[in-house]
Amino acid sequence: MAELVIVDTGCANISSVYFAVKRLGVEPVISADAKLIKQAERVILPGVGTAKAAMHNLAERDLISTLQGLQQPVLGICLGMQLLTAHSMEGDVACLGLIPGEVAPLNAAGLRLPHMGWNTLHSISQHPLLKGFTAQDYLYFVHSFAVVPSQYSLAQCHYGSDFAAVIGKDNVAGAQFHPERSGKVGARLLQNFLEWQL
Amino acid sequence: MLAKRLIPCLDVRDGKVVKGVQFRNHEIIGDIVPLAQRYAEAGADELVFYDITASSDGRVVDKSWVRRIAEVIDIPFCVAGGIKSVADAGKILEMGADKVSINSPALANPQLIAELNATFGQQCVVVGIDSFFDVASGQYQVYQFTGDESRTQKTQWLTRDWVAEVQRLGAGEIVLNCMNQDGVRQGYDLAQLKSIRDICRVPLIASGGAGTMQHFTEVFSTADVDGALAASVFHKGIIQISELKAKLIADGISIRP
Hints:
The complex is a heterodimer.
Chain A: E1 4-7, H1 14-23, E2 29-31, H2 34-39, E3 42-45, H3 51-60, H4 64-68, E4 74-77, H5 79-82, E5 87-88, E6 93-94, E7 102-105, E8 115-120, E9 138-143, E10 145-147, E11 153-159, E12 161-169, E13 172-175, H6 183-195
Parallel strand pairs in A: 1-2, 1-3, 3-4, 4-13, 5-7
Antiparallel strand pairs in A: 5-6, 7-10, 8-9, 11-12, 12-13
Chain B: E1 5-13, E2 16-21, E3 24-31, H1 32-42, E4 47-51, H2 54-57, H3 65-72, E5 77-80, H4 86-94, E6 99-102, H5 104-108, H6 111-120, E7 125-134, E8 139-144, E9 153-158, H7 159-169, E10 173-178, H8 190-197, E11 204-207, H9 213-223, E12 227-230, H10 232-235, H11 241-250
């Protein structure tokens, strides 16, 4: 049984997520095998690109019901986080529905898009994933769509408007920023995920 | 608040980091991986690696160093040089780069920008523009094949028109390299950057001319660029990133400490 499986979504940032976890001393397995994913202690759902393309890839790999049935800790990263919600307006596509919510175009109020670079968090909840996080920490974001804040937001970010930077419900959580590219602060989120006990 | 980015640029030739003056006379600065690691630890917000041989001499270039960088680096990095197709870009991104930057190949085939956007998403697609002020015509013009002096040539594009076109095609970020300033450390081309900023809706990165810490303050406060790229001042130890960040914060610029 693998300690951690990174779901092979066919997207581009899998190597960087793999290396980031490996730097924390865990050897992840990259796989699209439903059985391996089900048996893993923890699962990371990475993703860059568009929601429609990613959901298409997951359907093609016959992974949707597998991902919907996971009971162990699950972390979605960037687009992978958006896929955890019910629906994305990016391509008007149904997502995994693991966390209620909607992905909408980021209302940047005239600021440049994509929202690209290092930004801070606010409204940070007490949650095992966010242990040690403060409003002074910077995380690396790259996106044009975002999860609308809701009761499932564990932390928010402001760029023209507020959006959910971290979401969570039961065993499933997601981060809009790239922990694998957010220096020591990002590594802290991944470490917290590795230590997360349900 | 979104922080302005400081971006050391590492020009790569044959797996070594090099630096020339106004794109010429390249000298070896050091090995890629330790340099990249040093910059990440020193507080760089992002790194750019330009394979300066690739576009100009047309050979297949060994890019295995991309994977070696991805293994050790925990900040975003972009790879430029010799990316002529969706397949080329896919290999670089698969090895762990966060973005690819295209320059001469975009000029030869502008549709490549749209194809990269459709395949990998806008956030991956950086377009580098080498802009040279032509004194005779009083215009900024786009140049290509700037990695090799013997092949460097003026294109038919005025810089402003090309900036508009690459945005229309789906670029996610623009790096504007002001060639008149490159490597001479006399400051960024504030007038040009300011004028391009007005027509640039995607993140804009200033490149070429950084010589002092004050130059960074000026380019952020005057031209409102999203990031500032520099090479020699960092490679030669003229500016320490930690000191630069402290000064920029003191000057009221939004910076990740």
